[in-house]
Amino acid sequence: MIGTVATKTSDPMRIAAVDRASGSYGQQLHRALGSPRQPLLDGAQRAVRRAIAIGEVVESSPVLVRDVKFHSVADPVLNGQGGVSGVWLWTGPADEPRPTHPVAGGWSWNLSTRPILATYGPGIGAIYDRPDLLPGLEYDVNEITGCMDMDIAALVAPKIASPVDGTRIALRPRIDSDSAPRPLRAVTEVVRTGDAGREWEWRGLTWDVTETDPLTESPMRAAAHLAAGLDNAWTAIAYWRPALQLLDVAGARPQEIFIDPQTHKAVLAPVSVSAVRRLRADLERSAVATATLSFRTTSGGFASYQVTAANLRGSPVPAATITLRRAVTEC
User: Fold this and answer.
1) Which of 129-143, 234-248, 266-280, 288-302 has the lowest mean pLDDT?
2) In 3-state terms, what secondary structure has residue 232?
3) Is the peptide bond before 115 cis (omega within 30 degrees of 0)?
4) 188 pLDDT band (50/70/90 cuts)?
5) For a disulfide at 268, which of 81, 101, 254, 272, Cβ 3.0-4.6 Å?
6) pLDDT at 287 over 60
7) Is residue 74 part of a domain?
8) Is the pTM of this model over 0.70?
9) Cα–Cα distance between 325 and 232 in angstroms, integer?
10) Does residue 160 share a domain with residue 115?
């Protein structure tokens, strides 16, 4: 009995290949059953293709293999546009109930919009403990990036900031729910979309692996939460090449800081621009750097924040954990 995400492509003709060297579902069946009848593989292919076409669970006709009737069940994973992001394919004795597969969901980020807009399919809300993420609706990623595990953001940020068609990114995110942390897996890719391929999309399929791959804590995440536990502190991770990205890790974003509705970024006081340059230069030379920065507030004035930045070791792009704490004086 095999349970797997059977396809990463939207082309039904490229799935469930019989070639034993392809590493595909056909190879898995050969390993499990010896030399399965060709009709069994054909049935699996037809079930997956049909599931992609109609977006519903499809069962194949039973096939006799060594005096046992086997069949395949293809269960599609839908995205926010109503299409199919992947298919769970199970093959087993026809008289046995199909085991429940992990919760999974498809999603996409429109990289060509400002702000970037995210759309989620059924299942994502349960995976991320976010019942407010409804299938098919568009969400500003600045409002929902708390769903992401920031341990993986260093890998993703440069690839979506400078997209290359067909770039595939495998992720191992995690969720810190009220009950217990849970590990996830995701297969994702960056693709050209829209008329004449002028738009970019980052899309993927995420599923829960709690039962098969227990969670381990990362030193990076533990350090971020320790910093966020300081009184009146907000901790984020910043990436500044090829484009500046500031991603929330833990703690509450200061509500008084004004966010420009056009750029979706905080607004620095002119006197703080040079301080940011010095902060970045200091991080090129040392592990930790500090600065005092003034941000425009929702009341129209400026508020000063003490900023401590610590380099993230092992990041593929320049990145740092940023802790902001309200300064006593204002300018």
Assistant:
1) 234-248
2) coil
3) yes
4) confident
5) 272
6) yes
7) yes
8) no
9) 6
10) yes
- 3-class DSSP assignment, residue 196: helix
Identify the domain containing residue 46 by its residue range.
2-93
Instruction: With respect to residue 99, please indicate whether it lies within any of the assigned structural domains.
Output: no
Same domain, 52 and 131: no
Q: In the numeric block, which tokens belong to residue 236?
A: 């984020």
Scanning the structure block, which residue is given the tokens 């568009």? Answer: 138
User: Residue 99 contacts by C-beta under 8 Å, 6 or more apart in sequence?
Assistant: 1, 3, 90
We report the CATH number of the domain holding residue 304 as 3.30.450.20
The residue count for the chain: 331
Rounded to an integer, what is the distance from CA 191 to the centroid of its chain?
Answer: 15
Q: Which amino acid is at 208?
A: D
* Nearest one of 99, 43, 110, 51 to 77, comparing CA atoms: 51
Two tokens, residue 125? 């809300």
The predicted structure's pLDDT at residue 16: 43
Segments in the chain forming alpha helices (H):
25-33, 38-54, 124-127, 141-144, 153-161, 219-228, 273-285
d(CA 38, CA 175): 41
